[in-house]
Amino acid sequence: MSQAIIDVRGLKKSFGQHQVLTGIDFAVQPSQVVVVIGPSGSGKSTFLRCLNGLETAEGGTIVACGHPVVQNGQMMPEAKLDTLRTEVGMVFQSFNLFPHLTVLDNITLAPIALRGLSRRQADEQGMQLLAKVGLEHKARVYPGTLSGGQKQRVAIARALAMQPKVMLFDEPTSALDPELVGEVLQVMKNLAGEGMTMLIVTHEMGFAREVADVVVVMDHGNIVEAGPPSQIFGAPREARTRSFLQTMLAREVAHGA
Q1: Kind plus residue range of the DSSP H or E element containing 23
Q2: pTM higher than 0.90
């Protein structure tokens, strides 16, 4: 087994009196696609946000891309988090694009400011990334003219512009109209095929079955079980997993999926 690119041990996090993460142990190997599923409020998004320092962990250890994000409950200095986030990119539910900048300028802003690329270098890279997500023809328009699916694909290209070693996706399709979900998932499938290491929180069970190397089931701040999709979806060991999957299947049937 190769050395983990993300290693989490005993991760704990609370909001006030509510303990959201109760001692997470998990490791991600290079080029793995890990999909995290579970009911709302189970701690999935908080777990993801702890990995690149967007949430302050209160216990445990996280090492991501060689960076000690948390050591025995102590967060790495704020000044070092920018370096971490160039290597651990993140795509959110909301697109967070700058409305006053063109699509291309949204993508090139951070590489110029943080990686020292020239405008020409950044523009060339930005156009390549827009081609990757099928939007090179939208380079000069403003985000307000795009559909939700197009905005999310631009957000993915923007995250990739920092040349991260790991990509985190926090329910990237949950804010989209159903007919736009597929175009975003296809970009993510392509990234998986290229060997990008990814952690994805999603409610898209079909996507999890198709793309994941490992499916992680969370509930009440714990990992209930983890394994390949064939095991999690075909022969789950835990009653909580079976109950959750039955609920999701009933929801898919109700929506005509």
Answers
A1: strand 18-28
A2: yes
